[in-house]
Each structure stands twice: as structure tokens, then as C-alpha cells.
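Record type: monomer structure entry
Structure origin: computed from sequence
Chain ID: A
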Amino acid sequence: MAKRPGQKITMTTIDELLCVPDTEGTIDIDVEAIYPFENHPFKVLDDERMDELTESIRTNGVITPVLVRPDDEGTYEMISGHRRLRAAKRAGLRKIPAIIKEMTDDEATIAMVDGNIQREEILPSEKAFAFKMKLDAIKRQGKRSDLTSAHNERRLEAADIVGEESGCSHAQVRRYVRLTELIPKLLDMVDEKRLALAMAVELSYFSRNVQQWLYEYIKENGMIKQEQIMELRQYREDKNMTQEQLIGIFVKSRSTTEKRKKITITERKLNKYFPAYYSQTEIERVIVGLLEQWKAEQEA
């Protein structure tokens, strides 16, 4: 049936186009028979994008089947398609097309990460836990440990494999995985783009107690500086550090930084207040005199 003029055309979303195994053998499964992947690292939010996906499914149905694996109870664990399942339920569907595949725990973990990591918008925390789960699965499998990198003829590590399959470098994978060591409040700051990735990685090496103190300091005083973290590095292994000591280090570091500040007043600005025949010494004497007067007034 032709669409009426002005009627909104609902396009298939990117989540509907995610790659899954060949759709041959697809069957319809009761939506209530599918449960989420254990410790699924990707958030399923009822946001604007979910509204769009729900409308697409309400109009066109679920175009790309979800991927599940069967359990011994006659139900299924979701591998890829958590957002599609949520949208299908919101759209009122009772069944959803699915591909059922037998997989080990590690195979399922790798497939779950690969089926989600290429999404358009992924939070740093999602990427961090996804990379860690896949990294651990590959290590347990010993997958492709005999391969060598053509670049430098060294054996590929698990982080190399995760990086190659996700478009990241070995180092980037390691940095993201470090984020899983952050307390939730600091990790939320990374997701909210209030805490830079490099700074977050530095903070991840401190104990959870120290991280909590750092969070409280940031909340009350604003973002800490790289120099302050460098100053704090030497205390990483100090299990006896107190919150008062940490604040003392920051106060001292801030004071030292402030002492090094240099203020420059251009000649153009000075010429507004001093005759041309005043020497540099005379100008400095007047400025210092005025500052002394201002200081006395403040102290009074």
C-alpha cells in the first residue's frame, strides 16, 4: 500500500543490519524464552534510538534474526540481539526470528562481543568490559597462540587478536581493559566525558579506597591535574595512606604549581599608566608600592 503524503518512513536501523551467521535454519522463538547473556556489558536503554528501533520493528518486523544458544531447561541465552529483543517486546511481538547455535561458554562470549562491538555508539565502560571478557575467553582457549605478527615477527598475544578484530591497537585494548579496575563512580565520569581516558587509566592503578578519595576530591575541587597524579604515583603501593595524606599531597602540589606561575604585563598596557620617560626600575618600584598598599588593606 502506498504511503500517504507526509507519512513518516521508518528506516531499518543499524542494529537490524548487524552481521550474524547465515539465516538458513531461522526459527521463531517465544520472546519470553530468551534471557540475557550473563554479565552482558552493553547497556540496553529505553532511549530515543530504542524508540526508533521499536517503531522499525513494529512496521517491518525483525529483519535480522537474533543469535541464541540453547540450555538444558528448554530456554535460550541471548548472544547477539539484546536490543532487538527489547524492541520486539515493546512492539508487542510474542515471537522473534532466531538462529540457535550450540556454543561453549568461551565461544559464546567471543560471539557476543563481536556481535556488538561494531555498534555506532559504544561507551568506554561497555568497550572496557567487552574487551576484557573476550580477552579472557581467548586466553582460556589458547586461540591462535601459534601465529606471529608479520610486522615484527613476534607471537600474537590475546590483546593483539582482540585489537585486530575490533579496529584497535594492542595498547588501546590494554588501556580500555584497565578501566574495569575503576570504581563505578569514576567509570561513570569516563562515560560522561568528564574524565579523560588517559587520566582514568592512571587512576585505575590505585586501590579502590584511594580511588574513592580521588573521586571525592574531584567532586569538591574540580579535575585533578596530570602533575598531581605524577606526584601521587610513588604512593601506589602505600597501603597505609590516609585520605588526609592524599589531600595534603594535592595541596602541596597545587601550591608548588601556583608558585611557578608567571604573570606578564605587556608594555602597551603599562604605557597607559606611566609616562614614556619612566625607567623600568621606576615602573617596578611604583607597582610594588601599590601592591604593598593593597596587601596592607586586605590584611586590615
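Annotation 1: The first helix runs from residue 48 to 60.
Annotation 2: Residues 1-23, 144-154 have pLDDT under 50 and may be disordered.
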